[in-house]
Specification:
heterodimer; A: alpha/beta; nine-stranded parallel sheet; 12 helices; B: alpha/beta; Rossmann fold; four-stranded antiparallel sheet; 19% strand; pyridoxal phosphate (chain B); TrpB-like_PALP (chain B); amino-acid biosynthesis (chain B); Trp_synth_beta (chain B); tryptophan biosynthesis (chain B)
Chain lengths: 263, 400
């Protein structure tokens, strides 16, 4: 996918939504809207009670999904259906360590493999604690995604690059997810440094909500962007007006995808 | 690579977003350096003695044990400046914050005792201070909120989730992940990601060191048991640490049984939880079948936490310490008994430990036994809570 986009001179647009928010049925509809309007890959959040890497918009999204009492098995079933519908689409999931640990690490990655998941990002597992998860993920051919902070030193960049599979998640800034803080503190030099060690694509996340930011990110040399809170904010705004919700997501997705087209 | 082992057996670790790792590494480096630094250690010792008021007494309960052969001593952390053991370690952490050139401190609090201690240390060292507190805890601990504010701290109400300590902890971590370059996160208990469990234990182990010296002076023998309440576990690990190698001394941690274990409304992860990963560490957790963190419950806001420090999880796993639970009602009874019999108002947290000591005493009244109960804090903050319960009970009795 990255190669194709590179040939087309396009950046990759990856939307993030939380599974089960506002319901599993609506999640599927939202995902279909995202894909049909240009999403190049999907990052799907699995809801957790204490998502401490996330800001208020995604926290609330997690809580709305949790209020429906879905099980992880149900999420895997739905993810399998998405995979069947979009066989070539990279699908990553983002979740927290206790969900993986509670299911049993081996069983979790086996379920990911069976559901056709491409990658897993565990938000509260830094590279220093990743062994336990990483080797099991590799056995089941699941890419482990690592987060690279904007102030990472050379040794951290090197370690992440050595392990990275699929892509590296570059943080725009410190803090938690959300659109309230738009400071983008990445520099061209920083991107260059990472590229020196690693050839996997770089996706920038945190605070991405408009075309200007996307263009600026792509100019820095990243392969694409991940956009979560801006989309989830629409879900929150139109919770009781489903048609409007889908329509607004369609408009935003189309607009953001268009801004990844460099030429 | 960390400088110290982040694990206690299989428990502990650093399960935090990658962004926080440099802050944790910086903290560990400075802590390790400080432990080799004579001036740091002397200054800390001096503060404990001349500012906080150490050593605290070990008081024999003469009236409480009448008619039995049990001798119960109370380690009087309630007499420490601030009214709880919390002051010990915040002074150490505030010194670390200064060493790291941080200008502000973030903290979270449940009962407000750690918040008060943090506000004290920040006022003393002229550090800016913001304290996250669940909105429910702000209501039930209004006196402590006032104390924090008087000392210049900003108290931030947390409305997410259950609005208690668990949510305040999450919110503090979120703040820290944005502000770690200028701020120090002053965790209030021996829990959380490495190196906090070690740092907090090291700054709290003075409780155990003093207790051992005092009991040997008074009784000439070691006690049969050390009994301490366990929320996150800092007062317990502080007093246990000096006795871990003394196998003849039973170490008993008392968790909040809340409304009764069978009701599911409790805060006893060691007794009724299972291993998981939360708040930066692998430890025992209250969680549902899907691995979502459950809300805990205790009449005592300071014990209302769904997990526990990893060293306690380890001590349990190797059978070196035993962990039991007592209910809200048993704690309130112990609270009243200590007030009436000894003229001491204990914190509701400490009342859990006392309740279990009384249970053991009443089980074997003719057995010669010596207990030390860590009276981790004073109960002034809890008198309205207890009063409300007693009023409800009176109403209930009248309606029968």
């Amino acid at each position: 996918m990255f190669l194709k986009l590179s040939l087309l001179q396009e950046g990759c647009f990856v939307p993030f939504v939380v599974m089960g928010d506002p319901s599993l049925e609506m999640s599927i509809q939202i995902i279909e809207t995202l894909v049909s309007n240009g999403a190049d890959a999907l990052e799907i959040g699995i809801p957790f009670s204490d998502p401490l890497a996330d800001g208020p918009v995604i926290q609330k999204s997690n809580l709305r999904a949790l209020s429906k009492n879905y099980t992880l098995s149900q999420y895997f079933n739905e993810l399998k259906k998405i995979r069947e519908k979009y066989p070539m689409l990279p699908i990553g999931i983002l979740l927290y360590a206790n969900l993986v640990y509670n299911r049993g690490i081996k069983k979790f990655y086996l379920d990911c493999f069976s559901a056709g998941i491409s990658s897993v990002l565990i938000a509260d597992v830094p590279i220093e604690e990743s062994d336990l998860f990483y080797y099991t993920a590799n056995k089941h051919k699941i890419n482990s995604i690592f987060v690279c902070p904007p102030d990472a030193n050379c040794s951290l960049i090197y370690n992440i690059s050595k392990r990275a599979k699929g892509y590296i998640y570059l943080l725009s800034r410190p803090g938690v997810t959300g659109i309230q803080n738009n400071t983008q503190s990445l520099s061209k030099n920083f991107i260059k440094k990472i590229k020196k060690y690693s050839s996997v694509p770089l996706l920038q996340g945190f605070g991405i909500s408009n075309s200007f930011q996307i263009k600026k990110s792509l100019q820095l040399g990243v392969s694409g962007v991940i956009c979560g809170s801006a989309i989830i904010h629409i879900i929150e705004t139109y919770l009781t007006e489903k048609e409007k919700m889908i329509n607004q997501i369609r408009i935003l997705t189309y607009k953001l995808k268009q801004s990844t087209k460099i030429i | 690579m960390t400088l110290l082992d982040p694990y206690f057996g299989q428990f502990g670790g650093m399960y935090v977003p990658q962004i926080l790792m440099p802050a944790l590494n910086e903290l560990e480096q400075n802590f390790v350096d400080s432990q080799k630094d004579k001036i740091f250690k002397e200054t800390f010792k001096n503060l404990l003695k001349n500012y906080a008021g150490r050593p605290t007494p070990l008081s024999l309960c003469c009236n409480l044990t009448k008619g039995t052969k049990t001798r119960i001593y109370l380690k009087r952390e309630d007499l420490l400046h601030g009214g709880a053991h919390k002051t010990n370690q915040v002074l150490g952490q505030a010194m670390l914050a200064l060493k790291m050139h941080k200008q502000e401190v973030i903290a979270e609090t449940g009962a407000g005792q750690h918040g008060v201690a943090t506000a004290i240390a920040c006022a003393l060292f002229n550090l800016k201070c913001r304290i996250y507190m669940g909105f429910k805890d702000i209501e039930r601990q209004s006196v402590n909120v006032l104390r924090m504010k008087l000392m210049g701290a900003q108290v931030i109400s947390v409305k997410n989730g259950s609005g208690t300590l668990k949510d305040a902890c999450n919110e503090a971590l979120r703040d820290w992940s944005d502000s770690y370059k200028t701020s120090h996160y002053m965790i209030g208990t021996a829990a959380g990601p490495h190196p906090y469990p070690i740092i907090v234990r090291e700054f709290q182990k003075i409780i155990g060191e003093e207790s051992k010296k005092q009991i040997l002076e008074y009784e000439r023998v070691l006690p049969n048991a050390i009994i301490a309440c366990v929320g996150g576990g800092s007062n317990a690990i502080g007093i246990f640490s000096e006795f871990i190698k003394d196998k003849q001394v039973d170490l008993i941690g008392v968790e909040p049984g809340g409304c009764g274990i069978e009701t599911g409304r409790h805060g006893a992860p060691l007794s009724y939880g299972r291993t998981g990963i939360y708040f930066g560490m692998k430890s025992y957790l209250m969680q549902n079948q899907e691995g979502q963190i459950k809300e805990s419950w205790s009449i005592s806001a300071g014990l209302d936490f769904p997990s526990v420090g990893p060293e306690h999880a380890w001590l349990k796993s190797i059978n070196r310490a035993q962990y039991v639970s007592v209910t809200d009602q048993e704690a309130v009874n112990a609270f009243q008994i200590l007030c009436k019999k000894e003229g001491i108002i204990p914190a509701l947290e400490s009342s859990h430990a006392l309740a279990y000591a009384l249970k053991l005493m009443n089980l074997f009244p003719n057995k010669k036994q010596v207990f030390i109960v860590n009276l981790s804090g004073r109960g002034d903050k809890d008198i309205l809570t207890v009063n409300n319960i007693l009023k409800d009970q009176e109403k209930h009795c009248e309606s029968l």
